[in-house]
Structure prediction request, 360 residues.
Amino acid sequence: MIWKLTVIGLILLVLWRVISEPDTISRVLQYTFQLLTPVIMGIAIALLLNTVLSYMEERFALKRYQSLSIVYVTFIGLLVISAVTLFPRIYSSVSSLIEELPFYIRQLDGFVSQLNVFLQDYNETIAQTLDFKRFEERYSGWVETAVLSSVGYVSSFTMTLINFLIGIVISIYLLKDKEVFARMFKRLLYAMFPVATAKTTIDIFQEMDYIFKRYIIGKSLDCLIIGVMAVIGLLIIGAPYALLLGVIIGILNFIPYVGPLLGMIPAFIITYFYDPFTAVLVLVFIFLLQQFDGLWLGPKILGDSVGITPFWVITSIIIGGSLFGLVGMFISVPVTAMIQVILSRIIDYRLSRKNLNELL
Prediction:
């Protein structure tokens, strides 16, 4: 009775805090996510590399320390090669872009001034409604704001890098003793729940693991191909900062539906100040590239890997982005797919208890 009253009291306390302070749950989730970021990264890396690790042990009869050494030396080596090859060029492009930012601001100032004069001549009411003078006052401080924000971006990148390195260490220990962790998890389930419930829970986690690995690996390959094609296409068109824009397009392509638009906007804006005609070519090229990805390449690689409708994909991206920003948009789709697995199992069980599975 004391235990039940304690649980009820905690639930009521949480509900009262959520009702009285609606932002509390969001702050708690964000703090928890930030606190557990290295662990989450470690679990994600372990899940991705576990497939390769298991294949090597079965195919070549390697011991655990041997397969771990080969997998992580290869994994870290690929990361180092990518960083050494790409990072200096990307850094050079970003530095050059920041240096040319005042030029772009002056170009924008001239464009807005011409548009303001045109609207004054065409319709003074529309010009007063849009209030471009006020707009000019706002973007006049964009350069200073961008410089100040870069400090925060550097700090955020450094923290992400530290969390990633800690995640690699965590993933090594997870893979080293994965059978121990699996056994502990199974013992806990069978000790806490009935046998049927424990078996169902294990099946759900296995299905979630399959969906996660299939989606992440497939989407990563898809984004890599699109990123490389974007860089090659932008170089052929003659767009400035082709490598930087291609990397942005490839990374943002990880976000379904919304990502292609997010990648298209900066590419068009940056190229427009360089050459409007080239910007139009870039816009058409990226649009065709995204159509190729959405209609052929993506379905070919991913298939129906997550099994959720576009409505729930977009909804999950909106919710994930509002709670955790860009990171939330990246992980929202696989997380939603995992939630769907759990809910579908619960619904099937409840319907089977009512003998309604065949009817519904």
Summary: Residues 200 and 345 are 8 Å apart (CA to CA). The mean pLDDT is 80. The longest helix spans residues 310-353. The radius of gyration is 25 Å.
